[in-house]
Amino acid sequence: MFYTAPSILSSDFSHLGEEARVCAEAGADMLHIDVMDGHFVPNITLGAPVIKSLRKCSDLFFDVHLMISDPLRYIPDFIKAGADLISVHEESDGSTAEAVDMINNAGIKSCVALKPATPAETVFPYLDRLDAVLVMTVEPGFGGQSFMADMMPKVKKIRSEIIRRGLNVDIEVDGGITDKTVAEAAKAGANMFVAGSYFFGASDKVKAVALLKNAAEKAVR
Length: 221
Ligand code: DX5
Ligand code: ZN
Known about the structure:
Number of strands: 8
Bound molecules: D-xylitol-5-phosphate, zinc ion
Strand order of the largest sheet: 1-8-7-6-5-4-3-2
Helix content: 25-40%
Structural class: alpha/beta
Order of helices and strands: EHEHEHEHEEHEHEHH
Distance between the termini: 13 Å
Radius of gyration: 16 Å
Number of helices: 8
C-alpha cells in the first residue's frame, strides 16, 4: 500500500487549516508535520499548540516528524495534541527505545527516523516494535532540497530486514520526492512518500497526488 504525505513545511503557515483541507481534497493519505527546534536542525517551525489547533479542523492522519533534540520531554505534548504517528530521530538525545515505548503505549503509531549519515542497521533493534521507519533523503531542516539517490541502498537494506522478519513496517522517504524520484524510492522498498515543495508547488494538487501514486505503482509493477 502506498501513502502520500504532503509536508506542511512548504505550505502557507498563515492558513494552515485551509492548507490541510487542500491536502485532504487532493486525496492525500496523511499530513506530514515537521517539528523543528532550531537545535537538532538549524530551523524552527511549529510545536504542539499549533498541531492541537490544526487537529480541530482536520480529520487527516497526522504524521508528526520530530526534529528536536529532546523528544522524550515533548512526546506527551504531541500525543495530547492529536498526533497519529510520531517519528523520533535516532540521532536525538535520550533513549530511542524509551521514546518508541512512550509512543506505542499511547496507542498511536511509532516511527524511527534516520539522517542520511546514519546506517540502516541502527534501526534494527527497534524494528519489531515499529509501525514505520523514516529514511531521510535530504539533510533534515529545510524543504526544497534535492533527493539523495544514494540513500536507496539503505531503504533496500531495511526493507530486506522487514521481509526477513516477516514484519509489517512502512518505509517513509522524506526529502526531494517528486513524480520522478518517487519511482526509485518505491523500487527500493519505500511506500510512504512525503512531498513538500512538489505538492505545494503544483497548480493541480489532485493530479500531483495521483502522479506520485501512479509513478510508485508503475515502478514496482
Ligand atoms: C525536511 C523535512 C521535509 C521537507 C520535505 O527536513 O523533514 O519533510 O518538508 O520537503 P521537500 O519535499 O520539499 O523536500
Ligand atoms: Zn519531514
